[in-house]
Design a protein that fits this description.
The protein is mostly helical and 84 residues long. It has one domain: Orthogonal Bundle (Non-ribosomal Peptide Synthetase Peptidyl Carrier Protein, Chain A), CATH 1.10.1200. It contains four helices and no strands. Helix 1 crosses helix 4 (69-83).
Length: 84
């Protein structure tokens, strides 16, 4: 779980969505914190699909699943578990 969280943070920093000093809680809204917007979300979805070899179904593209580190991590774990 920690590895997925760190990967997402590294991606966000690498794509300049946030700088290395940005601090926020795992359950904090990435959009309300100004870290990610709709274009950034599309890039993040591509990253998740490629990095974890998973397809995210349309019905799972919800704020609960994609607007916080915790939601994203849970989504990835759930999809990876279902695939195995």
């Amino acid at each position: 779980m920690e590895k997925i969280r760190d990967d997402i943070i590294d991606f966000l920093k690498g794509q300049s969505f946030m700088d290395s000093n940005t601090q926020f809680a795992d359950n904090e809204s990435l959009t309300k914190a100004g870290i990610i917007d709709s274009i950034g979300l599309l890039e993040l979805l591509d990253h998740i699909s490629e990095s974890y070899s998973i397809e995210i179904p349309e019905d799972m593209l919800t704020p609960d699943n994609l607007d916080s580190l915790q939601g994203i991590t849970n989504l990835i774990l759930k999809l990876k578990y279902e695939r195995s």
